[in-house]
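**Entry details**
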Amino acid sequence: MLKATNSDATLSDHELSEMRSLLEQRSGILFDTSRERFFSARVREHMREKKLAHGAELLRLVRGSNVEYDRLLERLLTQETSFNRYPAIFSALEKRVLPEMHTKKFWEDPRSLRIWSAGCASGEEPYTIAISVADAFEQAETWNVQILATDISRQALDVAEKGVYPRRELETLKPHQFNNYFTQQGEHTFKVKPKIRNMVTFAPLNLAQAVYMGKFDCIFCMNVMIYFTEERRAALIQRFFDYLEPGGYLFLGHAESVAKAGVGFEPIVVGDSLIYQKPMTAAKRAAVTQERL
């Protein structure tokens, strides 16, 4: 096998196109023309690290080995996330959705709440959700709170599982959240306390593959669908609708919408955010109204 230097690695447009097609087919992620420069640079970077001279060699590797495919995909994934990344969204969760869920489910036995963080990256989103639940529910420990956090990146999930973050990444949290839910782990790192960590279960999942995991009260899928084709987005939104309980909520990123999917979500404006609710049945709506009286 030829060994490549920074100057002699060759990668044709056809080979780049083949890699894009392979990645989209297996992961559902579309590296379109808007990210052509990023895609080409990351692939070439990967080739240099693997000491490959030609794009055809990389294609053979990723087609013949799941491990090599995963390594290339990890190189291309951008895990941009943070605690409380979108304050308006979490304000809607804390002020509208969680109080509503608390009222609706308070007399259930057992009291349960299921939330899915789809595309959780390195864990900041699901932990922020868990912190919001702990803040909103008095005696949250008496509830069966299950937050399922999934991502295609196993490297990101490894970070999430540990729940250890630098102090600078926690600056977006409110002071009482930092003080109540984190404990110092190293000189400049802090670990999520068990009260929050135990609410969250992490698992690898490719959103391009339909896997039924039961019903949820809320689903978060923030800035994930922008990487999918319109057809895949519509299919995923339909799945979210099917997976939600009547009255459940879908949270999307600011650049994402359900408008073109033709699914029966009701858009709801809460403060500066737009969220989506699956309509309740008439009987369920009447029961919730009665509970509030």
Observations:
- The chain has two domains: 13-76, 87-292.
